[in-house]
Amino acid sequence: MNNKHLISKLLYLTIFAIAMAFVESAVVVYLRAIFYPDGFKFPLKAITDHKIFIEVFREAATLFMLLSVTFLAGKKRWERFAYFMFSFGVWDVFYYVWLKVLLNWPVSLFDWDILFLIPLPWISPVLAPVSISLLMIVFSILIAHSLQRGQEFKPAFISRVLALSGIILILYSFMHDVNATLHQQMPKPYHYEFLIIGDGLFIAAFWVSYLRSRHGKS
């Protein structure tokens, strides 16, 4: 696969992710008009009827859609992984871009948002998911380019440990405040230190594996 082919794939994945982000943001526009007509702010009114289950399945469907398109785009495991990270990152960033266009929200990157509902509601300032998504985009492009050059990408054991540690830290920062998500209270101050450490662990995990692939080590 030459550079032109790789750029073409990334371009079509970008178009898909941006379009999908618009659909996702449009749904949120309707949800906020129905459930938060006075403005989306914490403490949030809980959605207690069957619609909450619709939201959970909608989120699961979003992940399946992203997985499906990346399986079509890639042939090997790490190639598909790179395309999934790229698509997810672009989708997530443009989700907030479209909300800014449609609702003029968020006012700043420090506005709180509900990120996900599985298995518990995730909340954080917008800055957190955007920073992670930008890293995913950069990492995925470098991995895809490395594979395109014929270099084998195999994360080292230490990379897996670092990445898993980062995931645990950041997920904890998203889900630990159950009073804000399940009991309609104001969120506690966000643990930015967990985000910084988690992003740092992701960078370290990627860099170790990327250097190994550049030197042809498996």
Q: Could you write a compact summary of the structure shown?
A:
By secondary structure, the chain is mainly alpha-helical. Helix content is 70%, strand content 4%.
Q: Would you mind describing this structure in some detail?
A:
- The protein has one domain.
- The chain has helices spanning 3-35, 51-73, 77-103, 127-148, 157-175, 178-182, 192-214, and strands spanning 112-116, 122-125.
- Strands 1-2 form a two-stranded antiparallel sheet.
- α1 crosses α3, α3 (77-103) runs antiparallel to α4 (127-148) and α4 runs parallel beside α7.
- The protein is globular and about 55 Å long.
- It has 218 residues and is mainly alpha-helical.
- It is built from seven helices and two strands; from the N terminus they run αααββαααα.
The tally of helices reads 7
**How do the helices and strands follow one another from N- to C-terminus?**
HHHEEHHHH
Derived structural class: mainly alpha
If strands are numbered along the chain, what order do they take across the biggest sheet? 1-2
Number of DSSP-assigned strands: 2
The Cα radius of gyration reads 18 Å
Low-confidence stretches are none
Strand content: under 5%
Question: Which percent bin holds the helix content?
Answer: 55-70%
How many domains comprise the coordinates?
1
Shape: globular
Average pLDDT score: 92
Cα-to-Cα separation, first versus last residue: 21 Å
Biggest sheet architecture: 2 strands, antiparallel
